[in-house]
Design goal:
The chain is α+β, with helices and mostly antiparallel strands. 33% of the residues lie in helices and 24% in strands.
């Protein structure tokens, strides 16, 4: 019989190789964790998209040969906080003002998250995002003001 491990604390952490395969595994394992937390619907889809984008960026732009990246997700009552840490502190993500063939990923993160940013680490950086589990569109449809999006600040 296969034994499954759940995270009763609402926290999920893993280290993966800074490769495309590692980014894909981050998304797949993150989705599995959302299922274990019983997070479904539009909120789960938003978390999956943000996680996939941040993991892809960590593998593509934050890669240092021989170093992994770390994924951390924390489940709150009405949100999931996602953190991706990599070893390239000097390469800070900035949304592209005029994306051409790429560069839309951080715009997607900003659209789906209530806040996101970058914090320094002793080695590297952590890119984080807070994704609401209720649809922002549903909030707008009820006539309420959606949460303020906090863009990444280069000096943060």
């Amino acid at each position: 019989m296969k034994s499954e491990t759940t995270t009763p604390t609402g926290e999920f952490v893993l280290r993966l190789s800074a490769t495309r395969r590692g980014a894909r595994l981050a998304r797949l394992l993150g989705v599995q964790q959302l299922r274990e937390w019983e997070v479904t619907g539009a909120g789960a889809e938003a978390v999956e998209l943000v996680l996939a984008e941040l993991a892809n960026n960590a593998a593509l732009h934050g890669r240092v040969p021989g170093r992994d990246f770390e994924v951390r997700m924390e489940r709150g009552a009405d949100h999931v906080r996602i953190e991706l840490s990599d070893a390239r502190g000097e390469r800070r993500p900035l949304p592209s003002a005029t994306p051409d063939e790429g560069g839309y990923g951080l715009l997607l993160v900003a659209a789906l998250a209530t806040a996101w940013g970058v914090k320094e680490r002793e080695v590297g950086k952590t890119v984080w995002a807070t994704v609401p589990l209720t649809s922002r569109r549903a909030v707008r449809d009820r006539g309420l003001r959606p949460p303020l999006i906090t863009p990444v600040c280069p000096g943060a």
